[in-house]
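Database export, one record per block. Field names are fixed; values are copied verbatim from the stored entry.
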Amino acid sequence: MTTAVIIPPEQKNRKRTIEELLQSVSASRLSTWQQCRLKFWFRYISPIHKPKTPALIVGSSVHETLKFWNMARWRNESPTLKQLHDVFSTAWGGEQQSGESVNWDGEEQDQKATGWRLLETYFRESPIKADEKPEGVEVSVEAHLGCHGLPTLVGIIDLVRPPGRIVDFKTSGKCPDPEKAAHLHDTQTTGYAVLYREATGKKESGIELHHLVKTKQPKLVVTAFDAASDIQITRLFRVIESYVHSLERQDWIPAPGMQCAACEFFNECRLHC
């Protein structure tokens, strides 16, 4: 179990004021707010800081390696498996040197091996051909929604495949159900669609979630969606509108449920008045 660390005000570079949070919004912030408003307060506004979890380090190291692979293909390069493994090891070491104490419970090497097996599976089974040149990799995008009375939507799109297919990479502990994945990630995928259209002036051709699943035998599950509909975009804007009103009221009502068992702020929530 991780312990909370109180960060002095001058070191709270991860925390934001309510005014800052009202200027722009990301899919990850919206998703946290939708899960639980009190969790949102703990994560983005309170002085409580949680060290990275093993799962987060696995995910970020895998993500960095996929970013390198996609950038290499964008430059018409073909990295070897050894080069990719070196990138993964460097990313892992960088995460370990971040100054945070991670509770590995003696399983760091097993977790690292799991991360690399996920990548090996992806490179072997990916639907993306080695000679397919990406349209964009790790694209940082903004959509100014002031005309709708909303804050700026910001985000980073992992990959854009031709012709205009948005791809997001995820690591997961179990195989996703397509319908549940569509529902759970609707805010994120619709947000990416809005960002893509703002950046290109074109409608995306579709959206893909590439789940790297940490089962005993790693799996790759690709879930494909059509382009975001007008109904989805309207719903996203309504969610952002509700988010704005909630922050303006400083509404931090908790949402108790099954998800609380895995929440990093469980103990703080129990003590919260």
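Remark 1: The beta strands are 5-6, 24-26, 48-49, 136-143, 152-161, 165-172, 206-213, 219-225.
Remark 2: The first helix runs from residue 18 to 23.
End of record.
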